[in-house]
Specification:
alpha+beta; Beta-Lactamase; Heat Shock Protein 90; 3 domains; five-stranded antiparallel sheet; five-stranded mixed sheet; 10 helices
Length: 435
């Protein structure tokens, strides 16, 4: 925009100055020509000696010009040693002048030619042609355009410098705010934006961001404190209650023993439920610091760890060999995800069933599939499975898939439940691939 404005301002000005230079040069030539014509009139009209005419011609020659005096018959009367004011172009100008018209200047051999009548304009007794080099005019025109271009370039450079400074003044606090927001998103809750630099709108935005960050820090710390309190206040009495029931069950008989055993099972179930809720809460407040995770190695490690449990329950647990695959996610999250999925599958798959964990690269994702041949889920159960207690048919706490979904999504991945061909459930995880 600045360049367009400069062109619209500078170019017309340069054109105007060029036209002015040409007009001044031509007027100067005409003035010199009239001086010679006045001297020639005394000779051609009044019959005086050509002395004054010769003096004026010599003066023109000393300034580097060329001049020629013609009579009414277009015959050359006198001239300077330079013949540039003679020739066809000069004679055309003389003919125009003798016919009572004022001719436009002409160019010949790099010189500008002008002609003026000797005597009256309507009845001239002759004509004078004056020729001067156009080099001085061209030099002045070139200087005019050069200065115009320099002024335009200087204006454009100043505008660019001012624009860059202005852009940096505006964008620097925004860049700082972006970096602060990124650190805050990575878990550095104490990070705050700089509110001292930039325009008022950027400072106001930074102040609002800091207020939001402070509120977020307070909420997160409060959430963590609640989790810690719940962990302590619930687990301790549950452990004490379970111990007392164990002591009573050791000495009980008959119906009392049966009731105490049922109470022990409920206490154990309540303990698992508390542990599951705490695990979900920790997953929901987790802020991953992404790192390169070797998917094939983690899968092989978790399969080896769960193999004794699967063997005890009569389930075939396998992980086909695949290419090395690397995901970009929080350290330890893939292990938690696989542990929950394997635990859920082992609860659901009957004796003699199978559980397969596969991995491969798909587009920009590292895909992990956990497939079983258990009872599977209907469409309604799959739609609610990733919510807390979403599956009413779950044999465990109903929180495992909620933990899986949270850990996958906070790492920028997706989780989906599909049917296994031939029956069963397949969990498809698309995790960000490491580049």
């Amino acid at each position: 925009m600045t360049a367009v404005l400069l062109v619209l301002a500078v170019v017309p000005l340069a054109v105007l100055m060029t036209a002015r230079e040409r007009a001044d040069y031509r007027d100067d030539l005409r003035s010199g020509t009239r001086v010679v014509a006045a001297a020639a009139e005394e000779h051609l009209s009044d019959g005086h000696a050509p002395t004054l005419m010769r003096e004026e011609l010599d003066a023109v020659a000393r300034t580097g010009g060329c001049a020629a005096v013609y009579d009414a018959e277009v015959r050359l009367v006198a001239s300077t040693p330079c013949p540039a004011a003679q020739g066809d172009e000069a004679e055309k100008l003389v003919g125009t002048v003798l016919s009572g018209h004022e001719p436009e200047p002409a160019e010949q051999g790099g010189r500008l030619l002008v002609a003026e009548p000797v005597g009256e304009i309507r009845g001239p007794v002759g004509a004078v042609v004056l020729a001067r080099s156009a080099a001085p005019l061209d030099a002045r025109i070139a200087a005019t355009w050069g200065w115009s271009a320099a002024i335009g370039a200087a204006g454009l450079a100043a505008s660019a410098l001012l624009s860059v400074r202005l852009a940096r003044w505006v964008s620097r606090p925004l860049s700082t705010l972006d970096a602060t927001a990124k650190k805050l998103g990575e878990g550095a809750l104490e990070e705050r934006a700089d509110v001292d630099g930039g325009p008022p709108e950027a400072r106001s935005l930074a102040a609002t961001f800091n207020a939001m960050a402070a509120r977020t820090e307070t909420l997160v710390h409060g959430h963590r404190a609640v989790i810690a309190d719940v962990s302590h206040q619930l687990r301790t009495p549950l452990a004490a209650l379970r111990l007392r029931l164990d002591l009573l069950a050791a000495e009980a008989e008959g119906d009392t023993a049966v009731e105490l055993a049922a109470g022990q099972e409920e206490i154990a179930r309540l303990s698992r439920l508390v542990d599951g809720l705490l695990a979900v809460a920790r997953a929901e407040q987790a802020v991953p610091s992404p790192t390169a995770v070797q998917v094939d190695e983690v899968v092989a490690e978790r399969v080896a760890a769960w193999a004794p449990v699967a063997e005890e329950r009569g389930v075939r647990l396998a992980a086909p060999d695949g290419l090395a695959l690397c995901a970009w996610m929080g350290s330890g999250h893939l292990e938690q995800i696989l542990d929950n999925l394997i635990a859920n599958a082992l609860e659901a798959v009957p004796d003699g069933g199978s559980l397969t964990i596969d991995h491969r690269a798909v587009a920009d994702s590292a895909r992990v599939q956990v497939s079983d041949d258990g009872p599977g889920m209907n469409a309604e159960a799959k739609a609610l499975a990733f919510r807390r207690f979403g599956n009413p048919q779950a044999r465990g706490t109903g929180l495992g898939l909620a933990i899986v979904h949270r850990l996958v999504t906070i790492n920028g991945g997706t989780a989906e439940l599909t049917d296994t061909p031939g029956g069963g459930l397949t969990v498809v995880l698309d995790l960000p691939a490491y580049r």
